[in-house]
Amino acid sequence: MVHTCAMMLASVALGTAACGGSSNPLADKPYDATGHVGLAGAGEGRKVDPTKPLEVRVEGDDRITDVTATDAAGRFVKGELAPDGRGWHSTGALAAGAHYTVRISVEDEDGAQGRRTIGFDTSAADRLLRVAFGPQSGTYGVGQPITAELSAPVQDPAARAVIERALKVDSRPAVGGAWHWVDNRTLHYRPKEYWPAHATVGVRSGLDGIKVAGGLYGGASKPVQLTFGDRVEAVTDASAHTMTVSRNGQVIRSIPVTTGKPGYATRNGVKVVLGKESFVRMRGTSIGIAEGSADSYDLPVYWATRVTWSGEYVHAAPWSEGSQGAENVSHGCTGMSTANAKWFFDTIHLGDVIKVVGSAGVTMTPFDNGFGDWNMPWDKWREGSALTAGKREGTGPADAARLRPRV
């Protein structure tokens, strides 16, 4: 049964953003906004019609403060926010047979912060199992994982094995890798180490016409072609207050930085660049900081490179230049001078690697806040594959197939 839905979401370009540390005590205590925002016509097994427009619905006196809506491949939903922040409507159709996650922050008339995360599925175009690969064809940094979103959930191990055998990742030069099931309809693919610089990778599905399980058969899917650029890595040592940027193993710049202060410590581990925004408005209320409190802020931020969906960026922070290279004073983001941030913004690309060490924060999670895939050990990654789980690396036919070069 297909229904239209009304939901509260906004495009990232029009919403607000905030630095998100890993241990903010206030951010852990927002009220449950379930009764304030919702998806009309979704839930209880009902799916959203992707051809229908979406409409914002804000209940009571709540107002939107921050929203990200993404599909399993990390693609944002685009839309237009009303000037008063009370409404939103979509400007493009959703994908068919896709799963979306909406992360919502609201604020009531007293300034209290609310949170809700909502997942919903769009109806498939037909009953065939199709695959939507991500990212889109193009050039990326060597840390970019490949994603595959199925049009229907698959839980049976035998059916999963059929699917994995049909998902082809062909590279030049040849490089081994493995699929990992994030959930019943989402897979990620990565090599053991980062992709080789300047590698080319073709990703396609051979499921068309293949019986997956019972009456479920594979349908046609659009392939993607990826090219990887130079190996660009930015390593931030939070304890030394320095970021070191390298290209193909050669240091090209050392930058004084400041990271998350106590209570807002920056996440450790490997993150992958998700997007770049020349201007973002950052508000403390978006991470649960009460307006008017000692930690409150509302700032115009320039040259912002996003590394998590929850609002962690590398960005210009001219207000903290006196602390950069000396102490950590941010609310979770990595701040630097405007000149350095502009250089970094122009140098870095989607899929490039940003690694944080020496922070008091937790380690970046693999899948729920961006691309933290590289923080999962390789042996555990292989255990998430229906073909390589429980098998020694390099001994099975699946491993041999992954090592064949693309022709």
Report on this model:
The structure is a single chain. By secondary structure, the chain is mainly β. The chain has helices spanning 157-166, 338-347, 378-383, 397-402; strands at 2-3, 31-32, 47-48, 63-71, 79-81, 88-90, 99-107, 113-121, 131-134, 138-140, 146-150, 167-172, 177-183, 186-191, 200-205, 211-213, 216-217, 224-228, 232-237, 242-247, 250-256, 269-272, 275-283, 298-306, 313-316, 334-336, 353-357. A 5-stranded mixed beta sheet has the order 21-20-19-27-22, with no helix packed on it. A 4-stranded mixed beta sheet has the order 2-8-7-4, with no helix packed on it. A hairpin with a 2-residue loop joins β20 and β21 (250-256). It starts with a strand and ends in a 5-residue tail after the last helix.
In order across it, which strands form the biggest sheet? 21-20-19-27-22
Strand content: 25-35%
Mean pLDDT: 83
Class derived from helix and strand content: mainly beta
The whole-angstrom Rg is 22 Å
Shape: globular
Give the beta-strand count. Answer: 27
The number of helical segments is: 4
- Poorly predicted runs of 5 or more residues: 1-16, 22-27, 400-407
Give the end-to-end Cα distance, rounded to a whole number of Å: 44 Å
Helix content: under 10%
Biggest β-sheet strands, sense, barrel:
5 strands, mixed
Entry keywords:
407 residues; single chain; 8% helix; 5-stranded mixed β-sheet; 4-stranded mixed β-sheet; mainly beta; 4 helices
Summarize the structure.
This protein is mostly beta strands and 407 residues long.
